[in-house]
Each structure stands twice: as C-alpha cells, then as structure tokens.
Amino acid sequence: MSTTFARLIDPTFEDDHHPFRHYDASGEPLEDRLYLPCGIDPHSQVCGVAFVHPLPQRQEVLLERHLHNNCLEDVTWLMETGDRLAQPFQATPLYVFEATGPYWKPYRNFLHQAGRATATICGRQSKHARGTGTRKTHNDLKDAYTVAKVFKQGESHASRIPPEPLASLREYTRQHLFFVEAAVAMQNRMYTLRYQLHPEFDALFSEPILATTLALMQAELVSPEHLKTCPLNVLTELVRQASHGKLGAPLALALVQSAHTSFAVPTASEALSFNLRLLAEAYDSLDRVILPPLRQRIQTGLTQLPFQHYLDEIPYFGPIVIGSYLGELGWPAWFRTVDSAVAWFGLDPSVSISADKPAGVTHLTKRGSKYGRRIMWLVARNWAQYTPEGHALVHKEMHENGLAYDGAICVLAAKLVRIAFAMLRDGSHFDRQRAFT
C-alpha cells in the first residue's frame, strides 16, 4: 500500500489492519511538493469550496462555488476540477477542511479513500485569520478561502481519529460526560423546585438525592398540600420501601409536621410538583438504566487496549477517568514530549512577551481536547481536596505564586497529565514520591 499524503498527515485514516505501518512519529508529516489548496467549509447541506493559487506569493482565488455535501456528483466534480486546475502548475490538489462539527468527516474520508491529499484546520485558526482582514465579511465562500489561506501559511494540523478501541473509548466517555452533566443540571433544577415547593424538605435528609427523596418526588409527596392529605401509614410504607427498611414512621411524621409549618410558596404548586416528578423520573432512569451499560462498555474497552498501562494506580483514576484520558489523548506515540501532551489537553499557558518581558496576564491556551481538559480538571479537584500532594501544590500556587483557585487547579491538572503520559511512555508504575519531588 502506497504512503499517501493523507496517511502521513493523519495515520489513523487507514483501511488495513496496521494503521501505524507508514507513520514515523519523528518525521515531518507534510511531503515536500507544491500543493494547490482547495479550502472547504462544510455544513450539513452545502459546502463552500475555493481553489487558491498554489504559489506562496499568490493569494487569488482560481475558482469558487457551493457544493452539496455528501453528493457523489459534486464530489466527482471537485476532484476533476482540482486535477484540471493543478495540472498547469504541476501541483498536487489538496483539500483542506475546517474541522468543526461532524460534517467534514464523511467528506474527507471519501476523498481519502479516493487517494486524494487532505488536511484540516480548526475553527479557531480560521476565526483568527478572518479577524486580520480589513473587512469582516463572513460567508461560506469567504470562509473556504480563509481555510485554504491558513494552509498556505503552514498552520494546518492533523485532526487525528484514534484507532480502536481508543476511538470507541473517546465516544463512550464523551457520551458519559454528556449524561453526567445532564444529571447535574437535573439536580440543580430539582433543588430549585423543591425549595419553592417545600423549603424545609432537604433539611430532613442527609443528602438531597437519595432513593427515598426520589421516591417521594416521583409520588408527588414533596408538596405540603399533598403531604397533609396523604395517610400517614401510606407515607410510612413508601418511605420504608424506598429506604429498604432504614427509614420509616419517624421520617414520615417529620415530613407531615414540616408540611404544616412550611414557608411554602402556594403559587403554581401543582405545576412545580408535576415538574419535580418528571425530573425525578428522568434522573432515576438516567442513573439506573442509561449510565450502567455505558460504564460497562468503557470498562470492556479498557481491557482491549493494545498496550499496557498502570494508570489505575494513580489516585482517583477510575475507569471513566482512564477511558477519557486515553480516548482524548489517542495513540501515545503521536506525542514527542510530555509538554506536547499537556498542550493537547489545552492546559499549557499562553506566552505573552513584549520586549523580552512578560506582558499582561497569562491564560491557558485551551486548545486541543476540551473533554480531556474538563475531566482532568475534575480529577485535579479531587486531588486538591483529598491528597496531601495535591493540597500542597494548590496551596503553593495560590499563596506563593498568586494564582486563583481555578488557576491552581489547572496547574495540578497539567501535572497529572504529565504524570500519566510519562507512565504511558515509559510503561512504568506510579511512583508518588518521584512524581512530586
């Protein structure tokens, strides 16, 4: 199988059983040849395309038009036109996609399977390039031209799709994060409704979300009016069954007494009670039906990894965290240094220097994987709260280096990314003392 440009720039777009056979992590992914770039701004229905002059000093558009996305006739025209325009320059047509949303993946995969050279840029690159123009015009054809121009400036990047099972781990963990964030939003909404409906309700329980509280919400027995009319024996039995016998008559009596003395807001109490019931049912279904099989898929994917890792030795690195870290990182050999892995998670500080002196406040670049950055930030919070090393590092960054709490957590998150990547690179076990010296 020949080594095409697409395979060099993105080794995961392979159609055989050895996806890294042609990939040299130490080499330059671009071939040394003249390319005629075709910028493509993909959307669900149409794509703006623009062929730009191949010579570096020339910026004019040779041809531009709108195409239907995922249309065989239009993509055939695109390939034929690229060959025709590139022939006078003895150049190679190259199709550059703005890699935002899902719309570029099928199109690019088709061109790759057809043996065409492809590349990608991210939405932030094209946005910055548009901002340098004197006229801030914005349409699909202008964006397609901007995409091609960014490639000509040497700023394109490889949008790598990891091989299996890392690709599946990435999708499973992103879906898990989506559902968890939805569950948190439900918890916040349920608290708001409970406080309006029965402000004293939460004080009767050790935690706001328990099997007992969910059962009461689903039975619409949070409302003081409903509690007053509910027979005490029925309420007691519901509490006993929901708590598996741990709670009973005392709690039921306390709920009724609270209902008679509550500062409840009578406005729209029936609507609040019904909405609370719907939220409780959705949350219960999410917790019992949806998330368990998803977590099982993640654990199964971790057993199918083609390399050995010891990330589970790191405190608070459970299956979800490990699956998220590996899925977002991709193949470890793609990264040459620990710093490049940190940059991929967007946890590296941006550099702002003028006249050899720091200028302004330094922020995170926030490039790369936002999902990986989110999960590592959450893990770092656990480290800061429950481990002496994490607490000491955050305390130092806040009190000695003047960082805010979130900034100190980001420093700790970057530290954990470094530790995990070094363990993957070296195949080593977790050494707490070595990691924090």
Provide structural commentary.
- With 437 residues, the chain is an alpha/beta fold.
- It is built from 17 helices and 7 strands.
- It is elongated and about 90 Å long.
- Mean pLDDT is 84; it is low at 1-30.
Task: State the gist of this model.
The protein has 17 helices and seven strands. The chain has three domains: 5-152, Nucleotidyltransferase, domain 5 (2-Layer Sandwich); 168-299, Helix Hairpins (Orthogonal Bundle), CATH 1.10.287.4070; 311-435, no CATH class.
Structural key phrases:
single chain; 437 residues; alpha/beta; Nucleotidyltransferase, domain 5; Helix Hairpins; 3 domains; 5-stranded mixed beta sheet; two-stranded antiparallel sheet; 17 helices; elongated; disordered N terminus
CA gyration radius, whole angstroms: 28 Å
- CATH class descriptor of the largest domain: Alpha Beta
What is the helical fraction, as a range of percent? Answer: 40-55%
Mean pLDDT: 84
**Largest sheet, if any?**
5 strands, mixed
User: How do the helices and strands follow one another from N- to C-terminus?
Assistant: HEEEHEHEHHHHHHHHHHEEHHHH
CATH topology of the largest domain: Nucleotidyltransferase, domain 5
Spell out the CATH superfamily of the largest domain.
Answer: YqgF/RNase H-like domain
Tell me the fraction of residues in β-strands, as a range. 5-15%
- Helix-strand category: alpha/beta
General shape? elongated
CATH architectural category of the largest domain:
2-Layer Sandwich
**What is the domain total for the residues?**
3
